[in-house]
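User: Please predict the structure of the protein below. I'd like the answer in structure-token form so I can feed it into my own downstream comparison script.

Assistant: Understood. Taking the following sequence of 393 residues as input:
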Amino acid sequence: MTYDTRALNATAQILAEAAPDADRTGAFPWVGIRAVHESGLLESTVATRHGGKGGTLYDAATILAALGRGDPSVALISAMTIFNHLGQAGKNHWPEELYTRLLAEGKQRPLLLNAARVEPELGSPARGGLPVTRARRTANGWSITGAKRFVTGAHGLTHFLVWAHTDEPSSRVGTFVVPNGLPGISVIENWNSLGMRATGSHDVEYTEVEIPAENVLELVDPSVAQQDNRAHASITLALTAIYLGVAEAAQEAFIRFAHERVPANLGYPIARTERFVTLSGEIDLLVSGARQIIFDALKAGIGDAERLIRARLIAGRQLREAVQIAVRGIGNPGLNTDLGLERHFRDIQSVLVHAPQEDTSISILGRAAFDRWNRGEAAPSSHSIDLPILRTA
């Protein structure tokens, strides 16, 4: 896929200018979303067979990093739609007529899709379990009843992708495409997070919401409906690119401050002091290193779930530490809203909160390491050498 870097940066700049107000009010960030829509980025991963540009996951991560520099809340809302188009490009699991109709809608207004999966009783599906939310068969389609938590972009979504079980004699589990604004949908405005405030990740309740029969994706037996965290490793790594953008924005704010701050007792910018040169180097090591880790893994390791999980954890920890160093290095001005670092500091705390969380991801790696040992395999390496594993009695 080819895209205009200048246009991408210009879109990110629009987001950056609107971000402080969106963060302050917590209102749905329409200014940023409309900019992403008008630039065509929301449809960047639509398959060529559907008339799209056929962007890859690597392209999506590149776009999300740029949008994250502007406003990570807008980037996260956009990511949900970008990833859904990417999923359709690979699996072709949407009913053709329904998907074609949605693409047509997307030419007139921002088409915003997001999965509604987390439930009050269940928690995150990444930790196992099946949905309580019910899809009841009706004469004309389905009736959806249930409650979902942390539905990013709830107020602005055009369609909720609701994970539910059917009330059939042999129950199945699937994703039901529920247009926003239908009778029976209630958004519970309870998103009051430290950061990522403009995502509006509120709870949503569905009470006998009627949808057409064709508005369903991948109905399967409950025995195969569990979330596969390894299969989603590439998507969760690409999502981390949003927070790479946050850290790069924080790095830029740090550098700008260091060049503009001229203490009277020095007579020259603090950027020329050895302390700030060293701080800048530490931040660059972490941020630029995280960029290399993310994009190298996306380029070479799509089929290696453990490599992708490692990359996400290492990069996420580095990005979080880099922003903390920037705030600590500047001191009080870094905690002032005027500089922007305070907002970046709050937003970066979400880098490893997305499912699967750190503990779940680390458990995957730990079990994989034990399994390799039990099979007598060497630890993974980018330069594999065929050596036996030495074991002690």
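That's the full token string. The radius of gyration is 23 Å.
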